[in-house]
Amino acid sequence: MQSRLIHNQIVPQGGKVMVIHPGHVRTYMQGKLDEAGKLTPDESAGHILGLVDQRLDPGYSGEGLALIDNEGNTLPW
User: What is the pLDDT along the chain (77 residues), one digit of tens a residue?
Assistant: First the structure.
């Protein structure tokens, strides 16, 4: 909802909001390493940065508000 509210405020000025699910990342958020995670933090960050770069390209004409996973697939709201 917060992303939608921000979107509503900045879209009249040409802004866009992108919400990215980082994927299942191997982290220590539970006090121990979650070895079931498919991605390292560096891999997840690399995917996210690639998606941002792609959508900042002047030729990109996608949605002004997007909820996507770390591979660029659109997720349902």
Answer: 898 899 889 888 988 888 999 999 999 988 999 999 999 999 999 999 999 888 877 777 666 778 899 998 988 87
CB 70 within 8 A of CB 21: yes
How far apart CA 17 and CA 54 sit, in angstroms, is 14
What amino acid occupies position 5? Answer: L
The pLDDT score that the predictor gives to residue 25 is: 95
Compute the residue count for the chain: 77
> Which of 58, 72, 69 is CA-nearest to residue 21?
69
Distance, in Å, from the CA atom of 65 to the CA atom of 7, rounded to the nearest integer, reads 7
Under 8 Å between Cβ of 41 and 48: no
Using only C-alpha atoms, the chain has a radius of gyration, in whole angstroms, of 15
